Amino acid sequence: MQARTMKAIRLHEHGGPEVLGYEEVAVPEPAPGEVLVRVHAVGVNPPDWYLRDGLSNIPPEVRPKFDLPVVPGTDVSGVVEAVAADVQGFSVGDEVFGLLRFPGFDGQAYAQYVAAPASDLARKPAGIDHVHAAGAPMSLLTAWQFLIELGHEHPSPFQEARHRPVALGAGTTVLVNGAAGGVGHFALQLAKWKGAHVIAVASGAHEAFLRELGADEFIDYTESRPEELVNGVDLVLDAVGGRESSRFLRTLKRGGALFPVFFGEYDEEETAKLGVTVSGTQVRSHGPQLAEVGRLLDAGTVRVAIDSTFPLAGARAAHERASRGHIQGKIVLTVA
Q1: Would the CA dihedral through 179, 180, 181, 187 be positive or negative?
Q2: Is the pTM for the entire model greater than 0.90?
Q3: Are 74 and 47 in contact (CB under 8 A)?
């Protein structure tokens, strides 16, 4: 018999990791189009701590609306417990993973059970466990939608033009800034899968890890400034983004492109003079794309690096780990 209550992490106020409460709440009922997932693992992502902080780093005009208390989290891997009558393609007992309801902030994944839109889910790759599967959805879909296939027509809140990935191949050079993090380590692997020459930028502690993933060149940003060492690059995927991202414009050849994952500020006159493009998008939940990247995960073509794991009750400690930075891969919560 299914439990009527469950453990979940909830926010009743905004603040630091200390506002993440471990509480007893009702198990959700799947609405039409949804399945109930018994959660085995939850991926921890930057939007989780943005939500915890009150989304203060997102411009008010594009800030999603939500009400407190709220259960954070979007990335899950688990087992289907119940299926709404109108859902086809999933059955009780199926192992699934997904990015839930993003770019909204009502994924509600930090819990023992979650009601998940079936359209946001895919079958978990059989070749990886729930921890690694939970580490993939948001970060891997971000890298995929930036680099390989956008896969949707929704406009980005950060730019008017539709984002268009750059064709990658054996003659392409890609620089990945923040290459050791969640999005970065997937972007590196996808670019290598397409045959590109990849320059990885991270702190020196990550060099061996990134070379193992396939990086052709490595730059330790604590020792050197990439924009002073590199030029003639076709594409920069800046997984850090923000205020200093524009310095990477100097590394591009004419006709090249800079893709900042977290948008920064760029001078249109400078980009026009350099003959380069700056483009970004906002990752969106996409079950069919997740099924596609799942095949790469299953084959071992792309792998998920795990920085650390914490039990669901240790969500505060997981967020404290995130706040220290220098993450190698993904932080994941395990759910009993």
Answers
A1: positive
A2: yes
A3: yes
